[in-house]
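Researcher: Next sequence.
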Amino acid sequence: MQAMATSGAAGKGLGGLGKWWGVLSGLLLIAAWINHAAGPVVVIVLSAVTTAWCFFRAPVTCGAPVRGHDDGCRNNASGLLMGCAQVRQHRWEKLKVLVLRRQLRAFCSGLFSDGKAIIVTLAGVGSFVSGLVALVPGVVIH
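Model: Next structure:
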């Protein structure tokens, strides 16, 4: 009996939401802020999870510098701080750019390069600030 070739879509977890679980955690974070019954621990955990997703797992464009192209690599990447998996040199390129001060401007401009990157950047910054606010007692005005 011959095995049938599959596209691999059936093997993905969470029914296609595998890449977008951070959006769910972000929505739960918003609900935790609205519902005051959720304590600061819940807000801190959801903030950390959402921030980690934005930095390391969100599906965005790579944008690593490429010779001969002004807009950078157009492959899909995982997170704002990681590069694409297709080109080995791009994997850690964005993290290296953060270390080099002269290239920090290029990294920051890449955070707002397209609509998806803008949304992920704002979600990452918002969830990071949310976690900081939840850590400091008395900052939130009820």
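Model: Residues 51 and 124 are 5 Å apart (CA to CA). Confidence is low (pLDDT under 50) at residues 4-8.
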